[in-house]
Amino acid sequence: MNITDMGDRILAGDRRALARAITLVESGRADHREQATELLEYLRPCGRQGLRIGLSGTPGVGKSTFIESFGMMLTALGLRVAVLAVDPSSARSGGSILGDKTRMERLSRDPMAFIRPSPSQSHLGGVARRTREAVALCEASGFDIILIETVGVGQSETVVAEMSDLFILLMAPAGGDELQGVKRGIMEIADIILVNKADGDLKPVATRTQADYAGALRLLRKRPQDPEGFPKAMCVSALEEKGLQTAWDEMQTLSGWRREQGFFDQRRADQARYWFEEEVRQSLLAQLTAPGALRDKMQALGAEVAQGQATPSSAAQEMLKTLGLVDG
Ligand SMILES: Nc1nc2c(ncn2[C@@H]2O[C@H](COP(=O)(O)OP(=O)(O)O)[C@@H](O)[C@H]2O)c(=O)[nH]1
Ligand SMILES: [Mg+2]
């Protein structure tokens, strides 16, 4: 398909064109990459913005159930919702979203929603770029809310936080020991912690867990991009659809405040810069590791260093000269 034509269809809200475009950005083929870049450049001036909500939580915490009920609530409010995933383990597990499609049965049938499973690529850097580009395509297509799910394996939370306006952490009701095990870095990037499964027998535990997280959040260094009271912890039940409206109200309060204060645009600008730099880094690394003259040179120099025939620094300089990155 002609790229301009595809772009116009996306702008007109054509879902099939959107799905095809996402397939295009997911492709590893060089000619596809070129077309994808052209398409994204074509769509860039449209300036449409959705609210990008990152959502993370360990397997079983209720992400799929939450996305289904939260998503249905949003579409009932007249909002168009896109769901994407960053799942570095999807190659093994068969895709976090796809595997759970039954839990999102209603949402996947909703004409106001668009669900896209994680690309089956285990390399996090690659998944990150594809997801980020899929976000841009969904925005151009007029989606109001982009939910980006991750299971939180390895660095995937950081990756998702770097492409989200709001980062939501879904947690299970738990005892104090489990709370201690939560990585500090994750707490630091969370905007809202939702303790899920606050229903039935679990409700009292959920309430205590929420208070524990609220206490832990208060101990963190205050971030300039937060109004009074944020980041915050709340209870929800994805299953019984409780607390979802309140959670949405809080998300809107936070994003609204950040917009007014300029933090919203600032964060997006910082993220764009980050992804530019990341892409340069990744491309350089890819050149060094792909089969070819550069990789051979790396290996040859590595062998010299290992045998004591050159120092690590002099060999590194030699490599940078080969790359044309230093004069020589
Ligand atoms: N009691 C209760 N169970 C829930 C809730 N949300 C999800 N679950 C259950 O937890 C299990 C895992 O849910 P799922 O959405 O697949 O979690 P995911 O792995 O994070 O996507 C399922 O059996 C759900 O029915 C909730 O709010 N309350
Ligand atoms: Mg799931």
TrEMBL record:
<dbReference type="InterPro" id="IPR027417">
    <property type="entry name" value="P-loop_NTPase"/>
</dbReference>
<comment type="similarity">
    <text>Belongs to the SIMIBI class G3E GTPase family. ArgK/MeaB subfamily.</text>
</comment>
<dbReference type="InterPro" id="IPR005129">
    <property type="entry name" value="GTPase_ArgK"/>
</dbReference>
<dbReference type="InterPro" id="IPR003593">
    <property type="entry name" value="AAA+_ATPase"/>
</dbReference>
<keyword id="KW-0378">Hydrolase</keyword>
<feature type="domain" description="AAA+ ATPase">
    <location>
        <begin position="49"/>
        <end position="194"/>
    </location>
</feature>
<protein>
    <submittedName>
        <fullName>Methylmalonyl Co-A mutase-associated GTPase MeaB</fullName>
        <ecNumber>3.6.5.-</ecNumber>
    </submittedName>
</protein>
<dbReference type="Pfam" id="PF03308">
    <property type="entry name" value="MeaB"/>
</dbReference>
<dbReference type="GO" id="GO:0005737">
    <property type="term" value="C:cytoplasm"/>
</dbReference>
<dbReference type="GO" id="GO:0005525">
    <property type="term" value="F:GTP binding"/>
</dbReference>
<dbReference type="GO" id="GO:0003924">
    <property type="term" value="F:GTPase activity"/>
</dbReference>
